[in-house]
């Protein structure tokens, strides 16, 4: 089992698909990594040599922010918005949609299950 950026990537999958299991690497970045390191995209992870796995690991460390560092950066950005008290920060603080979605109806994923209001019958 190959371990890259603290993640055990699946061995039976093709290399670009397996790299997307790392937080911060999507399909486009996975293709970029494969082309930069001259790794055939049809190869499986269990067919890679130790040198190729090491090259992938070093390339990711040098060029991408992944996993824990990325999560920390995103949470710090959200915390900064909340501390500023800007509109987006207030929406984060209240657990409401941040990007302009309507909340009169919908937004149940963000707001949670509907709460019954007493005295609303009739």
Automatic annotation (TrEMBL):
<dbReference type="GO" id="GO:0015935">
    <property type="term" value="C:small ribosomal subunit"/>
</dbReference>
<feature type="region of interest" description="Disordered">
    <location>
        <begin position="99"/>
        <end position="122"/>
    </location>
</feature>
<dbReference type="GO" id="GO:0006412">
    <property type="term" value="P:translation"/>
</dbReference>
<dbReference type="GO" id="GO:0000049">
    <property type="term" value="F:tRNA binding"/>
</dbReference>
<keyword id="KW-0689">Ribosomal protein</keyword>
<comment type="function">
    <text>Located at the top of the head of the 30S subunit, it contacts several helices of the 16S rRNA. In the 70S ribosome it contacts the 23S rRNA (bridge B1a) and protein L5 of the 50S subunit (bridge B1b), connecting the 2 subunits; these bridges are implicated in subunit movement. Contacts the tRNAs in the A and P-sites.</text>
</comment>
<dbReference type="GO" id="GO:0005829">
    <property type="term" value="C:cytosol"/>
</dbReference>
<keyword id="KW-0694">RNA-binding</keyword>
<protein>
    <recommendedName>
        <fullName>Small ribosomal subunit protein uS13</fullName>
    </recommendedName>
</protein>
<comment type="similarity">
    <text>Belongs to the universal ribosomal protein uS13 family.</text>
</comment>
<dbReference type="InterPro" id="IPR018269">
    <property type="entry name" value="Ribosomal_uS13_CS"/>
</dbReference>
<keyword id="KW-0687">Ribonucleoprotein</keyword>
<comment type="subunit">
    <text>Part of the 30S ribosomal subunit. Forms a loose heterodimer with protein S19. Forms two bridges to the 50S subunit in the 70S ribosome.</text>
</comment>
<dbReference type="InterPro" id="IPR027437">
    <property type="entry name" value="Rbsml_uS13_C"/>
</dbReference>
<keyword id="KW-0699">rRNA-binding</keyword>
<keyword id="KW-0820">tRNA-binding</keyword>
<dbReference type="GO" id="GO:0019843">
    <property type="term" value="F:rRNA binding"/>
</dbReference>
<dbReference type="InterPro" id="IPR010979">
    <property type="entry name" value="Ribosomal_uS13-like_H2TH"/>
</dbReference>
<dbReference type="GO" id="GO:0003735">
    <property type="term" value="F:structural constituent of ribosome"/>
</dbReference>
<dbReference type="Pfam" id="PF00416">
    <property type="entry name" value="Ribosomal_S13"/>
</dbReference>
<dbReference type="InterPro" id="IPR001892">
    <property type="entry name" value="Ribosomal_uS13"/>
</dbReference>
<dbReference type="InterPro" id="IPR019980">
    <property type="entry name" value="Ribosomal_uS13_bac-type"/>
</dbReference>
